[in-house]
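Sanity check record (used in CI):
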Amino acid sequence: MARMCTVVCPGLCGLLLVACATTKQETRPPPAAGDATWHMVQPESTRRYELAMGDVSSGAVPFHRVAPVYPPSLLASCPSPVEVQALLVVNQEGKVDDVRVVDEVTADAERHLYIDAVRVAARQWDFSPLQITHWAADANGESHVVDSKSRPFSLTYAFRFECHAGRAEVSTSDTPPAGVH
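Expected output for Energy transducer TonB:
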């Protein structure tokens, strides 16, 4: 149903007619979306650098993370939550060189969509480099840096994908790493 409105502007040289239409608004469901969260995990098989007396490690902390994109082709069916555990292999500059998923070889096509999303996102992460610094005391007993090297490292993260009735939010767990391996 439409109606006409007339607007009178006394300061102008005439009448200005404006048509106002009242239309029925369609309500559409919100677009489907899914979320992905992650947290660091430490498998029992985790190997670590062994620090010598006087060695101190620092860094190996992510400072730029990109959330995986929920596979769009799976949103309509809104499957049960899926978790992908991935080992991020980080070089001496703090860039992710490789993303390894244990069950990738045996994964079905649907799971590969999640694995691919993890790989694309994780390859964009940046870490502060792992720095191992060796300190020593001089003849006066004062400590000073003898040597400092950047080292490659790897961390395992669990990425969880959830669909919430076609809607989602992306969140992160900002827990600092408990160990570097």
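The chain is about 10% helix and 40% strand. If this sentence no longer matches the regenerated tokens, the check is flagged for review.
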